[in-house]
Every structure is written in C-alpha cells, then in structure tokens.
Specification:
By secondary structure, this protein is an alpha+beta fold. It is built from 14 helices and 30 strands. The chain has 4 domains: about 55 residues, no CATH class; about 230 residues, Jelly Rolls (Sandwich); about 90 residues, Phosphorylase Kinase, domain 1 (2-Layer Sandwich); about 230 residues, Transferase(Phosphotransferase), domain 1. The longest helix has about 35 residues. The radius of gyration is 29 Å and the shape is globular. One 2-acetamido-2-deoxy-beta-D-glucopyranose binds next to loops. It comes from Cucumis melo var. makuwa (Oriental melon).
C-alpha cells in the first residue's frame, strides 16, 4: 500500500528533523503564558508539588478533599520553565494577573493563606505548612538560604507580626512581611470564597500589587495595595514563578482559577541573530513544503482507502474492540441506519446531553432505542467509546443498561442502547416529573432502585471475570425502565481491573463527579472498588432523603456533603428525620434507619471501613446487619487506619482491590 512506502517514511523523518531544527532556534528566554483556566493539558506546563493538583478547572495549591480535614498541608504550583530575571547587569520586568478563590473549611475562619512567589527552587520546603505558607520553614525563615520573594494573601493572623486575618504582604526570604496592607479598606475579603483578582507589575525597580473584586484593568489600577522598590539580588538569575499555599489546624481550599504572565526577554542572543533568522526562515520554508507534500499524499492515500475499502476506516477501532473480547451481542450499525432511526439526529428527539455526547431517541426496526452520539470535539470521545463498548458490550445483567450496538463511521462515534421510558433517577427524585407527568416515587420504588443498583455494582465488582470499576456512579447515570427497574448506565469512565494484578501504574487524572467522589481520590487519584462503594452510599442517601449530594465548592449550597448532613442526624439519634417528607408513613422506621446507616457506612471517610458491595447486598436482603457506625463522623485520615469494625473476611474483593490500580484500558 502506498501509505507504508519508503517515500512516506522519508518524508516523515524529514518533517521530524525540520521540527527539531525549528525547536532549536526558538528562543526560550522570554516567558509568556496565559491560563484562562486550568485543564489536564495545563498540567504539562506546570510543576506541581506536594498537594497541589489541577481539579475543577483550577489549580488547587493545597488539596481539595471535599469537606474533609486537610490540616497541616503545604503545596506549590509553578510554571515549568524558569524565568531569567537578571543577565549581565540587566533586570527583567514582568506583569502578571491571576484570579484566586479561597474558601474556608473550618469555623469561624480558615487558614493560612496563599502566595504568589518568585523562588530559586520549585519544590516546597519541608514542614512549611501552617504559618509558613509553603514559602519557608522554621529553619530557613529570615535566612538568605530561603531565596524567595512572595506576595502573600494572608487569611490568618498566625503571629503578632501579622496585622490581621485579611491582608496582603510583601515577603523577602521570610514570612514576616516588609510591607503589609489590610484588605478591608479595599473592599476585598480574601477568604470569602468569592473569586477576586490581583495584578502584580514589576518594572525592574518598583513592584506594584493591585487587588480587586473585578478583573477589569481599570478597576484593578484603582486599588494599588503595595508600591515598593524591590531589589531582586536575593534571588538567583533564574527563578520559578508560581504559587504556594498552606493550611494549619485551620483549613481552606486555596485555588488559582486563571493566571496570565508576561516577562521581558533580557537574554542575549544578538550575536546569533543572523544564523537564527536564517535557520528560522529555512526551517519554516522546509516545513511548509514538506507539510504540503505530506498533506497531498495523505489526501490521496485516504481517498484511495475509502474508495477501495470503505470498511477500513474503522478497522483499527474494531481491532481494539476485539482485543477486549466483545460479546457478539453488540451489533455494528451503519451510520445511515442510525440517521434514519433518529430522523437525522433531530434535536426534537434529543433525550439529553452528558457523558461526552447527546442522546437521541430513535426507532430501529420498530424498536425504541436511545442513540448516543459522541461529540466530535470531545477529545476523550474515542476512549470513552471503546471503554463503553468494551465494558457494557461484554456484560449481561438485569440492572445494567443494555448496549444493542455501535457505529463508527466518518469519525462519528455512536452507541445504541435499549430505550428507557422513565428517564434517569435524578429527574425522578428531584423533578418528580417523567415526560411532563407528575410522579412521586414511593418508598417501594426507591427501595427497589437501591437494591437494583447494588446488584449491578456487586455484579461489576465480584460477578464477572474481571473486576469492573464504574467510576461514575450517580443518580443521573441510573436509568429506569417501564417498571422503574434501575439500570446502571454510562460506562464511559469504567475500567476493568484484573483481580490478581499488582502492578502500580497510577493515572494522574481524577475522574468522577463532585459530590460522589470519595475523599481519598483527591490524594491517590485512583479508583478502587471502595470509591465506587462511596458513590453508591451517596446515592442511597440521596434516594432516601430526596436531597442532592452537595458540592462544598458551590457557594450558597449547604456546608459539606450529604453524608455530613445525615451523620448529624445519626449523632443526635434522630436519623428518621432525614428521610424525604414525601414518603412519610410508607416505611418501617427500623428498616429505613438500617438503610441510612448502610448508606453512611458506604460513605465512611476511611475506605477500609466501607463495606464491600457483597456485604451491602447481604444487608439489603436482610442476611446481615449493617456495620456499626460511630456516632461522631470520623475524620478523614490518610493513609487509612485499619477498619474500626470487622468485615466478613471471606469476601476477598475488598482486600484484593484495595490499592490495586486498574489496568489502563485507555490513557484517559
Ligand atoms: C498541625 O500542626 C500543629 C502545629 O505544628 C500541631 O499542633 C497539630 O497537632 C497538627 N495537627 C494535626 C491534625 O496533625
Ligand atoms: C507591563 O504593563 C505595563 C503597563 O501596562 C507596560 O508598560 C509594560 O510594558 C508591561 N510589561 C511587560 C513585561 O509586559
Ligand atoms: C470573610 O468571609 C468569611 C466567609 O464568608 C467570613 O467568615 C469572614 O468573617 C469575612 N472576613 C471579613 C474580614 O469580613
Ligand atoms: C519607583 O518609585 C519611586 C517612588 O517611590 C520613583 O521615584 C521612581 O521613579 C520609581 N522608579 C521607576 C523605575 O519607576
Ligand atoms: C540591590 O542590592 C545589591 C546588594 O545588596 C546591591 O549591590 C545593588 O546595587 C542593589 N540594586 C539596586 C537596584 O538597588
Ligand atoms: C492545633 O490543634 C491541636 C489540638 O488539636 C493543639 O494542640 C495545637 O496547639 C493547635 N495548634 C495551633 C498552631 O493552633
């Protein structure tokens, strides 16, 4: 075939070589970047230390573990390339603007603060938590070894030198600021949980710090908080720019939501400039020519393939799918069949959006179906698709949504499921409406749903050849058939995991839905059977209490998660009062309390103390008692302590899956 000819290989190598040359001539001294928000891709541009990570489109400088104690932490997030601030007597200048959001987690106030830093070192000093803001520690504070300049956004008066618990300060090698200003007079409350903006300008001599609730430059310019001559001689010639933050006994979520930086280029490449220009021009010219040739040949190639072998365009995908030994039950459809079935993806037939695409109602061979069309701009689309076909395609269970077929044509990815006339569980509980008709799910319906989902998860964890982790159990992923039987769907995030495999590759990304994610996920970034159990526990509480799982990051919502909320009732021994009013009188008090306790034990902050799905199912069937729960909600402690109660050890899944990472089905 023409595509594998030596000619193409030569062109490919030539392109690589040209790119390489191009890379050599690009100057790297000048530092400019803009993160309008932080994504998984931004992670490759940053160096994250200790507890810093990217989550919810922001850089969380100290960890964000949804309402659990995050005491005594420090973290640092800096740009990957250092910035040249001094070169042969010249001093660079820079401007930077960023958006911060600091939400207290302890009462009456959080701590400790966040700082913009210029530092010799990208890593966080040891023991720099608490008052040290991740800037210095007790040993380096005030010494020349610290080699750091920081603009601190201090949210706690931790020592007498701090003027108050809401100030901005300029720190040189020390947390004791050389200049500090209370923020109250500028109308800014740093730790209110509301985002605010700061702009810092350094002109090579004076530093100006501006702070405002508004991101408009003119508003920022009105609030100059600090204006000081600044001598950079305490820093080396090259520094890392970024943020550090810390918590103490008092905690808060410290996040940077956007960040722009522009620094001048004072490197000296004048002598090389002629060669430089020459190489650039030559490089670009070569690239253009090669690019054009490659494009033409690629075009001919693909046209050729499509004309001769229409099937081949998704040959690779089919191979991949075969690797996962898909049961033949999932049929391959043609795009035109599905277009016809959905009236050309008529928006009127749309059942909803989510899980990386839009779902349409359709009619295939006189059978109602739901067709999910994975959006083409979803980068993960293909991996989701493969995960979904590979997992549900090979599973059979009455409580799993059935995959009827799939289609991959013209880069269009489609999945065909059985149609669920009663929609998703969240709509049933929270809107109480199905197809516009008012319904109120009674206790029996809710109980059956709770049992159905448990059976599905038990099957995934223990019932099939490989353990399958769903990773995104939530009410909007539970579908209801005509008899309100619950069917777990949306396997876009699912992963299979070989039971015995003990390899330790972990993925950096955090997947799941806030409110349903177990606290340890934010530290380990790793899905386990226990994290699925946690999400199931949230779901149980949600269904019984008719209350949303809650997301502590949403301002205006109640404090913490639904588990916190229900635990308060448990503590005061009035659990039954947490039950949704609309099902009052339909249940036996002891039975519903059992289920709430079961739900809470699934939401135990300690993963080792959570029951397995096998045990959950035994409790639901009345074959076992629910685990004994402490009255006071235990704190989240990492690493986890051994469980406070004994689980039946005959069930090996908990032991086996604990800390065993899933085998990577995809790179997501
Ligand atoms: C946090 O650090 C402080 C001071 O170093 C210490 O007193 C406190 O016990 C620590 N808290 C935790 C939960 O480790
Ligand atoms: C910083 O902003 C000032 C004022 O807008 C501008 O004069 C200066 O050139 C900027 N410096 C850099 C490095 O972008
Ligand atoms: C800032 O906001 C927090 C959270 O709303 C509040 O507890 C604190 O009292 C406020 N601080 C000031 C100085 O207004
Ligand atoms: C720095 O600020 C001082 C006033 O504090 C001013 O006299 C000086 O001109 C400023 N220098 C520069 C380079 O803007
Ligand atoms: C900064 O400090 C160093 C050493 O203390 C001194 O040599 C230098 O002149 C200072 N630079 C300015 C611009 O004041
Ligand atoms: C932190 O709390 C512990 C007890 O939980 C206490 O002993 C310690 O003094 C506190 N430390 C600070 C710095 O507040």
């Amino acid at each position: 075939m023409i595509c594998s000819s030596p000619m193409i290989r030569f062109l490919f190598l030539a392109t690589v070589a040209a790119f390489f040359l191009g890379g050599v001539v690009v100057p790297i001294r000048c530092l400019q970047f803009d993160f309008p928000l932080f994504t998984d891709e931004s992670q490759t541009e940053l160096i994250l230390h200790n507890n810093a990570r990217i989550y919810l489109n922001a850089t969380q400088v100290t960890p964000d573990v949804r309402g659990d104690p995050i005491t005594n932490k420090s973290g640092r997030a800096v740009y990957k390339d250092p910035f040249l601030i001094r070169h042969r007597g010249k001093i660079a200048s820079f401007n930077t603007t960023f958006e911060l959001n600091i939400l207290p987690q302890t009462h009456p106030a959080g701590g400790e603060g966040l700082a913009f830093i210029l530092a010799a070192d990208h890593s966080v000093p040891l023991d720099s938590y608490g008052q040290w803001l991740g800037i210095v520690n007790a040993a380096t504070n005030g010494t020349p070894e610290a080699r750091i300049i920081a603009v601190e956004f201090d949210t706690r008066k931790s020592y007498p030198e701090d003027i108050d618990s809401n100030h901005v300060g300029l720190d040189l090698n020390s947390v004791f600021s050389i200049e500090q200003k209370p923020m109250a007079e500028f109308g800014v409350n740093i730790s209110s949980g509301i985002s605010f903006f700061s702009m810092i300008q350094f002109d090579g001599f004076n530093i100006s710090v501006f702070v405002s609730m508004s991101n408009k430059t003119e508003d920022l310019l009105k609030n100059r908080v600090i204006f000081q001559p600044l001598n950079l001689s305490i820093l080396p010639d090259e520094v890392y720019v970024g943020f550090s933050a810390s918590t103490s006994n008092f905690t808060q979520l410290n996040c940077v939501k956007s960040w722009q930086f522009s620094g001048t280029d004072i490197g000296n490449h004048k002598k090389k400039i002629h060669l430089w220009i020459w190489l650039t021009v030559a490089g670009i010219g070569a690239l253009l020519i090669i690019g054009a040739i490659v494009a033409i040949i690629f075009h001919i190639c693909t046209r050729d393939r499509r004309m001769n072998h229409p099937e081949e365009s998704y040959e690779g995908l089919e191979h991949q799918l075969q690797d996962f030994s898909i049961a033949p039950q999932a049929k391959k459809f043609e795009l035109k069949e599905l277009k016809k079935a959905t009236n050309n993806f008529d928006p009127k037939n749309s059942l909803g959006k989510g899980g990386f695409g839009t779902v349409y109602k359709g009619n295939l061979m006189n059978r109602e179906v739901a067709v999910k069309r994975i959006s083409k701009d979803s980068r993960q689309g293909k991996q989701e698709f493969i995960a979904e076909v590979a997992t549900i395609g090979s599973l059979h269970h009455k409580n799993l949504v059935k995959l009827i077929g799939w289609c991959y044509e013209k880069r269009d990815l489609l999945l065909v499921y059985e149609f669920m006339p009663n929609g998703s569980l969240d709509k049933l509980i929270f809107n109480n409406k199905i197809n516009g008709i008012q319904v109120n799910p009674n206790w029996e319906t809710r109980h059956n749903i709770i049992v159905g989902v448990a059976e599905a998860l038990d099957y995934l964890h223990n019932g099939c050849e490989k353990t399958v982790l769903h990773r995104d159990v939530k009410s909007s992923n539970i579908m209801l058939d005509s008899k309100f039987v619950a069917k777990l769907g949306d396997f876009g995030l699912a992963r299979t995991m070989r039971r015995t495999e003990q390899t330790h590759h972990s993925t950096k990304e955090i997947a799941g839905t806030p409110g349903y994610m177990a606290p340890e996920i934010f530290l380990t970034s790793r899905a386990t059977a226990e994290t699925d159990v946690y999400a199931y526990g949230v779901l149980v509480l949600e269904v019984i209490c008719g209350r949303k799982p809650g997301n502590p990051l949403d301002l205006g919502s109640y404090e913490g998660s639904i588990a916190h909320w229900v635990w308060e009732f448990h503590k005061e021994e009035r659990l039954v009062e947490a039950v949704d009013e609309s099902i009052e009188g339909q249940f036996v008090k002891e039975e519903i309390e059992y289920l709430l306790i079961l739900g809470l034990s699934c939401c135990h902050p300690n993963p080792l103390a959570r029951p397995s799905m096998r045990t959950v199912l035994a409790v639901l069937k009345g074959e076992a008692n629910p685990p004994i729960l402490p009255n006071e909600r235990p704190s989240f402690v990492w690493p986890p302590m051994p469980p406070s109660f004994k689980e039946d050890t005959s069930d090996s899944s908990l032991k086996d899956t604990h800390l065993v990472p899933f085998t990577e089905l995809s790179g997501r």
